[in-house]
Structure formats: structure tokens, C-alpha cells
């Protein structure tokens, strides 16, 4: 029978603890992470009506909007998209994950080192090309560099999650009823794969229009039979409506009566459908009950 001294055993345990607590010997680029390669079809378990046909005018529910965002959204009219400069305005990184498009993903490998230097994700409605998530540590461009709809993306793995940070995006829309996103937004996306399911969790930080981060998740299912990369969505600008030079379709403050139609249709208090961070939390149910009771009272009216 072998006898091990207490000192030797203690030293062995300390050594094991040091090994477990130390960071792994490989670098970020050595860790390839889960394989996201393939053709992924969008699922519509959440907000299917909004993501397909489109949202109702005046429906700002579930959005942490501030007053500036509401004013901008209320001034919106669908006729704006008949302007030549906006006819081919495409979806942005982050927002496009909530649309009806599938996504194709593939890995870019350095031909010399064989390291994974980028992941590419291409949605059909991305005329600028694909989303390139750089993993090679390259620095972001200067703050005043060109902004695009796809933006500049860097990323890395946190455990088995691919985490991408997106900056340098043009202004666009958060919801297709006029809810805006500014060109100062930053988007962080988490890509997670579980068997044949891809989940993309998107955090949108917009200091201009959001009082809190906007958090959304989208599910995709692997479609191994699709067989080809989705081509860019074709778009050709044309003059659809004759207008005077400088004429821009809009609603002046307080004149957009359509913005309250959503509340009237579902007999909801107007305050509850106007968005805002406070409406996103369970505690708002108390306030909602108060509003509903006041609305149901004699003379309370609708959509107050």
C-alpha cells in the first residue's frame, strides 16, 4: 500500500485548481466554435402578423420609445416610400432578423493559417451584400467613416455563442410603421445553435430614440435542401408619383388621426399602445388595469 504525504497531496490539489482556473491555452481564433454553415429558414412563432403583412399604424407596443421617437413615428406616412431615394431602402442588421427572409451562413477561412477569420450571413433583402462578422481583431473604422445598412461588425465566441457588435449603420426603421432607428445605434447579436435550430438574440442600443435597449429573439430552422445562396433582392428605382421638387409626404404634429386607430380597433387605452420602457415590465399591468377601468366607466370613452 502506497502512502502519500499530506504535503504532496496538498501540492497536487493546488496545482489542479490552478489549471482549472487558468484560461485555455488556445486563442480566440483557435476556437472555431459551433458550425453555423447552412441555409436557415425563419420561424414566425412571435409577432407573425407584423413580420409578414406588416404592423398596424400606431402600434408601438413592446418598444422602449422616447418622445422623440413617437413624434417621428407619428409624422410618418407610407407614401414616403414612393420617393425615389427611399424606394430601395433596405432592412438593417438587427432589424432584418425579424423579417420574413431566410438566411444563409458560411465561414471564411484564412488560406494560410486556416483560422476562421469571419462569419458571413446573407439575408435576401440585403442589396449591399452579406453581413460580415470579422473575428480577426481588426479595429473599427473612425466614427465619421461611411455608414451602411449592414454596418461594420466584429465578433468572437463567448462559450458556444457567437457574439457580434455592429456599428456604423445608417438610420432606418425598427418597425415598418414609422418607428425609427438612428445612425448612432449600436447592435449586439448573439448567435446560438442547438441541433437544427438557430437562435439570434438582438440587443439594439439607440441613444436617440430608445430609452432602454431593445431586446428581441428570432428562431430559424436548418434547411439542408435549399441548395444555393439566396441572391440579393432586386430593386429598381423609378418615379412612381409626380411631385413638386422638395415635396415630402408627412403628417404634421397632431394631425395623424390614423395613429390612434390601433387603440380604437382593440379598445385599448391609447397610453398603453404608445410604447415606452415602462410598458415592457410586468409592473405595468397595475397601471393598465387602472386605465382599462377608467375607460370602461361611464363617460370614459375609448383609446384615452
Describe the structure.
By secondary structure, this protein is α+β, with helices and mostly antiparallel strands. It is 16% helix and 24% strand. The protein is built from 6 helices and 11 strands. The strands form 2 sheets. The protein has a 9-stranded mixed β-barrel with strand order 1-2-3-4-5-6-9-10-11. A two-stranded antiparallel sheet has the order 7-8. The longest helix has 16 residues, at 6-21. The chain is globular. Mean pLDDT is 83; it is low at 1-30.
Q: Topology as H/E string?
A: HEHHEEEEEEEEEEHHH
The computed structural class is alpha+beta
CATH class of the domain at 38-58 and 79-222: Mainly Beta
Q: CA-to-CA gap between the ends?
A: 85 Å
Task: Give the C-alpha Rg.
Answer: 25 Å
Q: CATH topology of the domain at 38-58 and 79-222, what is it called? A: Lipocalin
Write the layout of secondary structure elements.
Elements: H1 6-21, E1 38-42, H2 48-51, H3 67-74, E2 103-109, E3 116-123, E4 131-134, E5 152-158, E6 161-167, E7 172-175, E8 179-181, E9 186-194, E10 197-205, E11 214-222, H4 261-265, H5 270-273, H6 284-296
Parallel strand pairs: 4-5
Antiparallel strand pairs: 1-2, 1-11, 2-3, 3-4, 5-6, 6-9, 7-8, 9-10, 10-11
Characteristic key phrases:
304 residues, alpha+beta, 6 helices, globular, disordered N terminus
Summarize the structure.
The protein has 304 residues and is of the alpha+beta class.
Amino acid at each position: 500500500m502506497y502512502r502519500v504525504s499530506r504535503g504532496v497531496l496538498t501540492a497536487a490539489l493546488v496545482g489542479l485548481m490552478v489549471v482549472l482556473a487558468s484560461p485555455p491555452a488556445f486563442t480566440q481564433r483557435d476556437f472555431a466554435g459551433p458550425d453555423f454553415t447552412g441555409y436557415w429558414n425563419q420561424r414566425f412563432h412571435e409577432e407573425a402578423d407584423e413580420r409578414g403583412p406588416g404592423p398596424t399604424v400606431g402600434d408601438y407596443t413592446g418598444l422602449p420609445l422616447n418622445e422623440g421617437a413617437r413624434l417621428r413615428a407619428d409624422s410618418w406616412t407610407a407614401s414616403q416610400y414612393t420617393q425615389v431615394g427611399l424606394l430601395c431602402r433596405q432592412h438593417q442588421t438587427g432589424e432584418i432578423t425579424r423579417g420574413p427572409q431566410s438566411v444563409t451562413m458560411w465561414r471564411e477561412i484564412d488560406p494560410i493559417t486556416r483560422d476562421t477569420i469571419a462569419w458571413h450571413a446573407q439575408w435576401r433583402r440585403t442589396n449591399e451584400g452579406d453581413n460580415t462578422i470579422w473575428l480577426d481583431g481588426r479595429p473599427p473604422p473612425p466614427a465619421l467613416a461611411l455608414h451602411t445598412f449592414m454596418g461594420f461588425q466584429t465578433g468572437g465566441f463567448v462559450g458556444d455563442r457567437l457574439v457580434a457588435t455592429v456599428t456604423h449603420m445608417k438610420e432606418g426603421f425598427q418597425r415598418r410603421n414609422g418607428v425609427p432607428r438612428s445612425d448612432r445605434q449600436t447592435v449586439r447579436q448573439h448567435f446560438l445553435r442547438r441541433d437544427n435550430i438557430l437562435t439570434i438574440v438582438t440587443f439594439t442600443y439607440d441613444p436617440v430614440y430608445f430609452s432602454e435597449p431593445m431586446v428581441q429573439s428570432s428562431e430559424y430552422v436548418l434547411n439542408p435542401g435549399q441548395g444555393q445562396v439566396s441572391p440579393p433582392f432586386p430593386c429598381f428605382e423609378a418615379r412612381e408619383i409626380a411631385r413638386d421638387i422638395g415635396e415630402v409626404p408627412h403628417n404634421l404634429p397632431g394631425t395623424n388621426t390614423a395613429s390612434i386607430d390601433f387603440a380604437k380597433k382593440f379598445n385599448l387605452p391609447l397610453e398603453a399602445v404608445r410604447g415606452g420602457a415602462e410598458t415592457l415590465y410586468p409592473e405595468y399591468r397595475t397601471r393598465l388595469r387602472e386605465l382599462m377601468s377608467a375607460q370602461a366607466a361611464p363617460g370614459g370613452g375609448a383609446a384615452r
